[in-house]
Design a protein that fits this description.
- It is built from 8 helices and 8 strands; from the N terminus they run βαβαααβαβαβββαβα.
- By secondary structure, it is of the alpha/beta class.
- α1 packs across α8 and α2 crosses α3.
- The longest helix has 24 residues.
- The protein starts with a strand and ends with a helix.
- The model has no long low-confidence stretch (mean pLDDT 90).
């Protein structure tokens, strides 16, 4: 089965992606991972993407879509995949459909984890991460044993700039503006499933599992 995972910053996509990987034999593919692999392998598209990234510019759709197409053609995607962070626009969604059609595949379901903005701000504003091993904690729901110190490696915990409340509000506005047309696109194709993410992760996953079990 081929799945797209959507949701705003702080919705719990990472936790749900981990649970999906543990329960289903599909590969988790994030936009960031794809770009890092293309850059590390020094593919022609990876080198092209690097030119834009080094200048702080958005990588054009044709380059991003090319990298996605190469990744989805890999053998590990034959049993299915979970796409996280792509597509972001209707143009990219159309291109993804064309790519999958050429591979004799398609998207089975789009999971959108929905959480109220005030809850997202509360969640993310309490998030800190380790400067060394990158482990993420939440001061409200998953605090470290010692304040400001990573349980795993003992290094300092800091809050990322984009996790600060004022920055998060801007990110949420951008996400809503970008995602709204995409949600309508997949709703009209009868692929979209809304999931209430304002609950504990196990309860959220129970809903995710009920949807995904239909495609086994």
């Amino acid at each position: 089965m081929n799945i797209i995972l959507m949701g705003p910053p702080g919705a719990g996509k990472g936790t749900q992606a981990d649970m999906i990987k543990e329960n289903y034999p599909i590969v988790h593919i994030s936009t960031g991972d794809m770009f890092r692999e293309a850059l590390a392998d020094k593919t022609p598209l990876g080198r092209e993407a690097q030119k834009y990234m080094e200048r702080g510019k958005l990588v054009p759709d044709e380059v991003t879509i090319g990298i996605v197409a190469q990744r989805l053609a890999n053998p590990d995607c034959r049993n299915g995949f979970l796409l996280d962070g792509f597509p972001r626009t209707v143009v990219q969604a159309d291109a993804l459909e064309a790519v999958l059609s050429s591979l004799d595949g398609g998207i089975d379901a789009v999971l959108n984890i929905a959480v109220p903005d005030e809850t997202l701000i509360e969640r993310v504003a309490g998030r800190v991460s380790c400067t060394e091993c990158k482990t993420v904690y939440n001061l409200l729901s998953n605090p470290p044993k010692q304040h400001g110190v990573c349980d795993k490696c003992g290094q300092e915990l800091v809050q990322r700039k984009d996790d600060q409340a004022t920055t998060l509000i801007e990110r949420l506005l951008v996400y809503t503006e970008q995602s709204s047309p995409l949600l309508i696109y997949y709703r009209d194709k009868k692929m979209l499933h809304y999931i209430d993410g304002n609950r504990d992760s196990q309860t959220v996953f129970a809903d995710v599992k009920a949807i995904l079990d239909e495609f086994r």
